[in-house]
Design a protein that fits this description.
Blueprint: E1 7-12, E2 17-22, E3 31-34, E4 40-43, E5 55-58, E6 63-66, E7 71-74, H1 92-105, E8 113-116, H2 121-133, H3 138-143, E9 148-153, H4 158-170, E10 173-178, H5 181-195, H6 200-218, E11 223-225, H7 230-234, H8 246-258, H9 264-273, E12 278-280, H10 286-293, H11 312-317, H12 328-331, H13 338-341, H14 345-357, H15 360-364, H16 366-369, H17 378-390
Parallel strand pairs: 8-9, 8-11, 9-10, 11-12
Antiparallel strand pairs: 1-2, 2-6, 3-4, 3-5, 6-7
Keywords: ATP-binding, Ligase, Nucleotide-binding
Domain Glutamine amidotransferase type-2: 1-70
Protein name: Glutamine amidotransferase type-2 domain-containing protein
């Protein structure tokens, strides 16, 4: 029955026993560690365990840990988790209602909030539904019925242009934040310290989000709604074009959802939390995931000859001629990586900067310096050096 995004520890003071639990897919971050003296440590950040634990690890999503039983137990066991191939027919109205309910559920708040709007399909749908249901909420009575949206990018980036168009269409108050490649490079170390990973794609995307979150919080906003999770559920990444059959397509979406806590959820949670900002993700609503993952995956398959691009089932569900949610070209806009959407020169700038700090000789010896997950590019090596400086024990743990 547990729902929402959470990590918690419940302590029974009568016998000092405790239970630890993490939300279904790992929207929030949580780690567990063990000390040489037999102590057990729980933290929402690696840095809370790094100096005091002999061994520590990510607390698995959808699990609880009981001190009495001394082990983990999975509490989240949806049907899709077994990766059995579903057979429910695709009903666009059922999918639409499920997502609208997921967004509306996340409008329960008494703090100033807004939507992270990149101008892509996922964030634009979140903004559209939020804008149409905001008026009757408690938040609207306190903070106004006009939705605030936020976007970040390099000057002239694809996201900025698309987000501005969506904001104009929806009539939202749009906040556009610009950064330069040098601004991003200057923030890399702080970003890695807060997001606690050396994964290249995550760092590329986290840094602009980290910069944006600081500016959003400075405006007095305390919560944002974001579009993470859709690509994993619906096979939105471009490599899904290569899926040989619906069985492999479905299994890959299951694997992607199960790994979200290591990548997109980690980015969204830690980039915002670093500044005291809460990020809510309606695509990862338990009920919505159940509906979306029950659809026969043949409907999710990418069929260009039939006019079905990636995430066609989601696009079609909101393609309403009488009451359009979005302009057609936004509804059918192709997927951009967040790190690409904020500006194509961002990645080129990161690679050039890393090349100034990592020599060819350093790369030749990389397997000896970093035998675990050896970096295979200069950019990856550069991030790894920064990460190791902050978290020197993580490799052996």
């Amino acid at each position: 029955m547990l729902d929402g995004m959470f990590s918690f520890v419940l302590l029974d003071t009568r016998d000092n026993s405790f239970i630890v639990a993490r939300d279904a897919v790992g929207i929030t971050s949580l780690y567990i560690g063990w000390g040489l003296d037999g102590s057990i440590w729980i933290s929402s950040e690696l840095k809370g365990l790094n100096d005091d634990c002999e061994h520590f690890q990510c607390f698995p999503p959808g699990h609880l840990y009981s001190s009495k039983n001394g082990g983990f137990r999975r509490w989240y066991n949806p049907i899709w988790f077994s990766e059995a191939i579903p057979s429910s027919p695709y009903d666009p109205l059922v999918l639409r209602r499920a997502f609208e309910n997921a967004v509306i559920k996340r409008l329960m708040t008494d703090v100033p909030f807004g939507v992270l709007l990149s101008g892509g399909l996922d964030s634009s749908l979140v903004a559209s539904i939020t804008a149409s249901h905001l008026a009757g909420t408690k938040a609207a009575k306190q903070w106004g019925s006009q939705l605030h949206c936020f976007c970040v990018g390099l000057e002239g980036s694809p996201d900025l242009k698309a987000a501005r168009e969506v904001a104009d269409y929806l009539g939202t108050v749009h906040h556009e934040f610009h950064f330069t490649v040098q601004d991003g490079i200057d923030a890399i170390e702080d970003a890695i310290y807060h997001i606690e990973t050396y994964d290249v794609t995550t760092i590329r995307a986290s840094t602009p989000m980290f910069l944006m979150s600081r500016k959003i919080k400075a405006l007095g906003v305390k919560m944002v709604i974001s579009g993470e999770g859709s690509d994993e559920i619906f096979g939105g990444y471009l490599y899904f074009h290569k899926a040989p059959n619906k069985e492999e397509f479905h299994r890959e979406t299951c694997h992607k959802i199960k790994a979200l806590h290591q990548y997109d959820c980690l980015r969204a949670n830690k980039s915002t939390s670093a500044w005291g900002l809460e990020a809510r993700v309606p695509f990862l609503d338990k009920d919505f995931i159940n509906v979306a993952m029950a659809i026969d995956p043949q409907w999710k398959m990418i069929r260009p000859e039939e006019g079905r691009i990636e995430k066609w089932v989601l696009r079609k569900a909101f393609d309403d001629e009488d009451h359009p949610y979005l302009p057609k070209h936004i509804l059918y806009r192709q997927k951009e990586q967040f790190s690409d959407g904020v500006g194509y020169s961002w990645i080129d700038g990161l690679k050039a900067h890393a090349a100034l700090h990592v020599t060819d000789k350093m790369m030749q010896n990389a397997e000896f310096i970093f035998p675990h997950n050896t970096p295979n590019t200069k950019e990856a090596y550069y991030y790894r050096m920064i990460f190791e400086r902050f978290f020197p024990q993580c490799d052996r743990s």
